[in-house]
Here is the input.
Amino acid sequence: MDPLSPKKAEYVLSAKVGIESVGYIDDLIREYMMFRGFKDTLQAFEEDLKRDQDKGFKPDSIVDELLTMATELRIDSLLEYWRYLSFRFFSHLSPKYQRTTAMFEKRLIRLFLVSAVKTDQRQAIRRYFSEHGLKLGQQGDWVPWLGLEYVQNPASRPEFEAYFDDDWYASLKTALSDFIQTVFPAMAVPRIMLFDKERREREQLEAKVKQLEERFDAETKITTTGVLGSSSSGLVENHIKSLATSIKSPKFTAAALASKSVMAKGKMPDVGADEDSISATGAGLCAPYYDPGSYSPSIDLGIGVIQANEPTSLLKISQEDIFLEHNSPVALARFSPSGEVIASFDDDMMLKVWSPDPESVAPKLKNRLGYPVNAMAWDNKYTHLLYLYDDEGYIHTLNTNTNLMSRQLVKEKRHPHIVNMLSSPTSSSLLTLSSTDIKRASDVSLRLWDANASKTVASRRLSTPFESQVVSASFNHNGNVLGIAYNTGQIQLLDARTFEKVASLDTKQRGICAAEFSVNENSMMLVSETGKLTQWSLGENDQMIAESHLNIGTYKSEDVSQDDFHLTYDRVAFASNREHVLVAPGRQCLVFNIDSAAMTDTMRRHKDLVTCIDFAANCSLSASMDGTIRVAQFREV
Here is the structure.
């Protein structure tokens, strides 16, 4: 068996501890229901426990049940129980273990046949082979067993002798018990059974926080701001400047800032400068040429220390696969927060939850829904929860561990059309942006929905600038600040808990389709429909830090119209470190390095237009109207 990754090994260990504590968890549930006075629920719970086919997740109890059915010649009950175990547990295993499960099923059937011979009930053998003999006869190793009923003393025959030995029975019992004990932790278990994992993670996080606090106290004194709920934009600026004293800005701003520094001193850039010392020459930055001697290598413009000669990184594809999960155009596709699981929805209203890793223990679901889904988001805190927004304004919460779904109405009558739906990075809160018109998001309503309480906790109608449309929304790292971008270049920063405006920025840049906070959150990065990439400081008034152009127009083809190469929100994705951006004009996903605007790699071309892309955990996906989904794994060089 291949060794588990540290992450999977940690999960398996925690799941094993939780499964071994099922009895303890059952007692906690009993105690809670008695405390709440849920007598009928408690009675139903006790009745279900009596009929528990999982036997409290005790491998020995399950094995004893299987062996008893075989030795007592209850072959129909044996096969039915094995089918239940296969669906309930074995289906979660990697396909490479299918031979193992088939081998144990074969051994249990042979135990039944041997037991029939020992108890002189050979008519049971005749009945079994009359029903299953034709199928078994196609398997070569079963041919000798078809005549077992007529063999006088099979225990003396070499092909049967081992099965009549007590050692064979003991080895079967031990091996089957070990196998089932290994299967349980491979399942996606509910969070209540991962209590030990959460306890250890909390202890590790507390230790890490303490270590970081001690280091920060030793290096510098940082004054933190209070709740970002004031109407003054100074709070955001102070917050940004405090971050900037210890965190670098994204690297692609270096050349542009160097040029601005030169111009501020009244010096003209030296067009004869050595091209090797120039950051991203010819890539479309604000000023590709500058005099290396006219500025200090470390530039401080109040937004952080930037090293102009810091080398760029390249994101390269190490592996790419194509998946034929859908038979119709894929409308939505999103990675789970860990990047291990993908949720995808097509025009036939087929929802699938699956993993591109064939050895993943994550659940695989396939549900045909009775309604179209217009937006999709994973919960960043409880990563087994998937949220779906339908065209009637309901949010459906799918538990991917149990495949159970609930729904909550959140739509306002005046704003029936969903523009965007985001999950908070730190809590089970959903942000929905809905508009009055499906084609023009000019009148937008913001609603913050608490998934735990199943209720709306905040709402606001945005005062939209004239002829502006909301095109993008993004949270900062802790979910306290919300950035709203308009296609006309306006950026509004809101307190994500109260929706109060805390700052605004007017870039006057038309055609914006996506916006994202920089990694240190002292600026916003904007992408236009035509591939223009700009960065704007949040610490200075309407100051553009850098500008570049992603040459997406060079990848056009004759059979694709001009409009198809205009980027949209669903076809732009930033890498988590904000050093690369992925865009999908036409039929292909392209990867660009942000600080040089150079294309570093491309995913393979789909047969039809790309509908959406996503990026998580150094993996990207591109979904297409041809029903295919391409998944690429990246490495940084």
Remarks:
- The CA atoms of residues 619 and 633 lie 5 Å apart.
- The chain has a mean pLDDT of 77.
